[in-house]
């Protein structure tokens, strides 16, 4: 049952849990809704809380950063007493005179929960008009999904959505071309080895691979293909995910800058342009 509540920013906190003798239970805590003392979820030590208002604000910041049109509708639904949150931003009349094959609206979806029943996730898609009767289907642009653990990154996920939005608005033909450029996993692995997973070496003619980096990038790519398919757009989203999720590094801002520079260099590599001819590889 949906509670259509505008109040998604109610105060919450992690509180200890006690046994029948009044002793705290180690490595466990509960999410407490402070305005009515309702317990929204009970969790172990690996749980990381992400507040509903942080999710909504991160999406709104991403929209602002992407310089999207301001004519949009924001809907936020608080569900099950605040345990879950579901939201949508729908951009109106993205294409002024839509015809079959055009994108008539752009949409951002986001989800969160305090009871861990829903992963924290954000996604963006374009609604493509595919028949004269006004029927549309969504084409996924970007998505991120996290369990509520230490690896969660609200800012990184929103940054990825922002990059997807920017590419969709500023380069729609490029985005569509990448979406319809199918590539194999072998091609992607070779691309990584030649670019962002290439390890520095003293020998000019010798090429070494950062195997740990390669494994991480391939894992991200596999996750992207589950949402976007095995295409150049999924590869691009893999790279933007890798660049924007740096919170677990020693110096996140420096790491992000270095990764962004590495991606810019990789997209100038001959293999990036040869992806369109990947069928011959």
Notes on the protein architecture:
This protein is α+β, with helices and mostly antiparallel strands. The chain folds into 3 domains: 2-44, no CATH class; 52-170, Alpha-Beta Complex (Aspartate Aminotransferase, domain 1); 176-280, no CATH class. The chain is 36% helix and 28% strand. It has 8 helices and 11 strands. It has helices spanning 52-65, 154-170, 172-179, 185-194, 211-228, 232-244, 252-266, 270-274; strands spanning 2-3, 12-18, 24-33, 38-44, 72-79, 84-91, 103-113, 120-129, 136-146, 198-199, 208-209. A 6-stranded antiparallel beta sheet has the order 1-5-6-7-8-9. Strands 2-3-4 form a 3-stranded antiparallel beta sheet, with no helix packed on it. A hairpin with a 4-residue loop joins strand 3 and strand 4 (38-44). Helix 2 packs across helix 6 (232-244), helix 5 (211-228) packs across helix 6 (232-244) and helix 6 (232-244) packs antiparallel against helix 7. The protein is flat.
């Amino acid at each position: 049952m949906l509670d259509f509540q505008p109040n998604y920013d109610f105060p919450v906190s992690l509180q200890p849990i006690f046994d029948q003798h009044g002793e705290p239970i180690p490595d466990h805590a509960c999410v407490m809704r402070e305005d009515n003392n309702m317990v929204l979820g009970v969790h172990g030590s690996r749980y990381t809380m992400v507040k509903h208002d942080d999710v909504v604000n991160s999406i709104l910041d991403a929209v602002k950063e992407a310089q999207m049109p301001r004519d949009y509708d924001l809907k936020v639904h608080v569900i099950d007493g605040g345990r879950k949150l579901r939201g949508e931003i729908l951009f109106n009349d993205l294409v002024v005179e839509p015809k079959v094959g055009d994108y008539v609206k752009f949409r951002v979806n986001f989800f969160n929960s305090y009871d861990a029943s829903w992963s924290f996730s954000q996604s963006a898609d374009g609604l493509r008009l595919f028949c004269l009767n006004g029927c549309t289907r969504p084409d996924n642009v970007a998505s991120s999904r996290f369990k509520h653990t230490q690896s969660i990154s609200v800012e990184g996920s929103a940054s990825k959505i922002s990059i997807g939005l920017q590419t969709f608005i500023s380069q729609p033909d490029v985005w569509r071309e990448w979406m319809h450029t199918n590539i194999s996993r072998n091609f992607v692995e070779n691309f990584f080895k030649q670019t962002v997973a290439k390890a520095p070496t003293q020998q000019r003619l010798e090429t070494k691979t950062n195997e740990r980096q390669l494994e991480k990038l391939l894992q991200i790519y596999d996750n992207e293909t589950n949402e976007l398919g095995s295409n150049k757009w999924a590869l691009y989203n893999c790279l933007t995910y890798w660049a924007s999720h740096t919170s677990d590094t020693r110096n996140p801002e420096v790491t992000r800058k270095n990764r962004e520079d590495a991606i810019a260099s990789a997209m100038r590599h001959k293999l990036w342009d040869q992806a369109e001819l990947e069928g011959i590889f």
